[in-house]
Each structure stands twice: as C-alpha cells, then as structure tokens.
Amino acid sequence: MKAIIFDLDDTLIDWIYEYNDTLYMALQDYVSNVSFEMVDKVNLGISKYDKEEDNFTKEGLLKYINKYTNLDLPLEYIDKIEKYQFECADYDEDRIDLIKYLSKKYDLYLISNWFTSTQTMRLKKAGILEYFKGVYGADINPFKPKKEAFKVVYDKYGVENCISVGDSLTNDIEPCYELGMKVIWKTNEHSDKYTTIKDIKELRNILWDILKRLVIIFFLKKLVIIENYMIV
Predict the structure, then answer these.
(1) Average pLDDT value for the chain
(2) Among 44, 87, 145, 231, which one is least packed by beta carbons within 10 Å?
(3) Does 210 or 216 have the greater pLDDT score?
(4) Cα distances (angstroms) measured from residue 221 to each of 94, 161, 224, 225
(5) pLDDT band at 222, cuts 50/70/90?
(6) One domain, residues 174 and 161
(7) What are phi and psi of 145, to 5 degrees?
(8) Are residues 153 and 115 located together in one domain of the fold?
(9) Is the domain of 148 the same as that of 37?
C-alpha cells in the first residue's frame, strides 16, 4: 500500500452537534429571529444539493438553501458559513501522533464533499494539515460517491496500492471497494464484508494487520509457484 484516502467529518474529525451552530450564526447576519427549524431547512438544502447535483459551487448551493428555506440569502451567506466552519475542529495529540506516524509510511490524501478551503483550514486547526499530500473538496473534484472522485489519487498509485478510510458506506467504502481498493469503514456496526474500526486511533493496528495478511498472501503465492515448478 502506498496511499491512504481519508474522509474528514466523522472520520478524522467528529462532527459534533455544536458545529451546526455555524449555520445559525451565519443566518443571524441576514435574518431576524432565527429558529432551529430554519437551520434544519438549511441542512436539508445542503443535503439535497449533495445528492441531486453533479457540480459543487457556492451559487448552486445557495440556490438550494434559498429553495428549502424560502429565503433570499446573498452569496455572502456561504462565505459566512465557511468562515465560521474554519474553527470546527479539535486539537487531539493522539490523532496528531497517528497521522504523523502514517505520513512516514504512506502518502495521505483527503477527499471531501465540501469546500476545499474550509476542509484545509480545519485540518490546519487540528494540527495535521502538514502531513497531507493533497486536499480535494467537491468544488475542485467530483462528488463522492462517484468513482471519479478518487481518480485524483488512484491514477498516481493504482487502485491496488490505495486504501480508503471513511464513515460513509455509500460515499467512502462501496465505490472504492468496487474499484478494487482496500477499505476501512469507521462505524459501530459489524460487517462481514469490510474491515471496520470504531475509532480512528485503531487505524495503526488495523493497517499492520492488513499488511501482515498481504505479506502472507505474497509468500503463499510464491510457494505455489515454486511447488508448480518442482512438479514440472
């Protein structure tokens, strides 16, 4: 394995409920008497845009938000969300140690269905940006779960040398598995099909187990070749 492709939210950084306040705070600049119901509608607009559209732009996102909130927010509202979300990350020494360790063995990449600038700043706040070879948001890269979203990495290394780590079965795991990548699903669910972890800090040991299995498979194949040669 040569490269690890990470998702961000609820994979590297837990998206806690308080982070939704960024949508609330941004609305306060344009709407009086902001309600949580209004914030839910903003979230609905974002979710619908993510599922229904092929291109990710501020203008397109704003159109969906205005549609589902029945508001007429300006484009600057999206900029406000980004600004507030720059702070949506925690500083975790154990996670920093893990990512630093992995960066010495693999090339690390982030692929997200959000803005590149926002996710880049959040990685920086979390203290791990310097360990990543590339950060690709949906504004410069295709949406997940399109397989083309991962092409920016697997074209460099080959799918057989990449591993995808994420919390979304639909976006991060299934498309990469179908491509032929190794995958690690961050979930509390049990899976007979995919390797799973409950916490990102389990990743070091899981990767070591995968590497050991690959080494065993390699030598077993070599042994079969030698045995076939001796029979001939």
Answers:
(1) 91
(2) 231
(3) 210
(4) 38, 18, 5, 6
(5) low
(6) yes
(7) -95, 15
(8) yes
(9) no
58 DSSP 8-state letter: H
Instruction: Report the predicted TM-score, pTM, of the whole model to 2 decimal places.
Output: 0.89
Q: What percent of the chain has pLDDT over 90?
A: 81
Answer whether 106's CB lies under 8 Å from 2's CB.
yes
Of 65, 85, 105, the domain-final residue: 85
Q: Which of 62, 85, 108 is the last residue of a domain?
A: 85
Same domain, 193 and 98: yes
Same domain, 102 and 172: yes
Task: State how far the Cα of 18 lies from the Cα of 218, in Å rounded to an integer.
Answer: 47
10 Å CB burial of residue 42 (0-12, 13-18, 19+) is: buried
**Dihedral (CA of 169, 173, 179, 180) sign:** negative
136: left (phi over 0), alpha (psi -120 to 50) or beta: beta
Does residue 221 surpass a pLDDT of 60?
no
Closest by CA to 149, choosing from 116, 120, 188, is 116
Residue 229 has what pLDDT?
53
Q: Is a pLDDT exceeding 80 seen at residue 171?
A: yes
Confidence of residue 218 (pLDDT cuts 50, 70, 90): very low
Q: Are residues 46 and 134 in the same domain?
A: no
CA–CA gap between residue 163 and residue 166 (Å, rounded)? 10
* Residue 39 covered by a domain: yes
**63: number of Cβ within 10 Å:** 13
Output Rg (C-alpha) for the chain, integer angstroms. 21
Is residue 67 a part of any domain in this protein? Answer: yes
104 and 160 together in one domain = yes
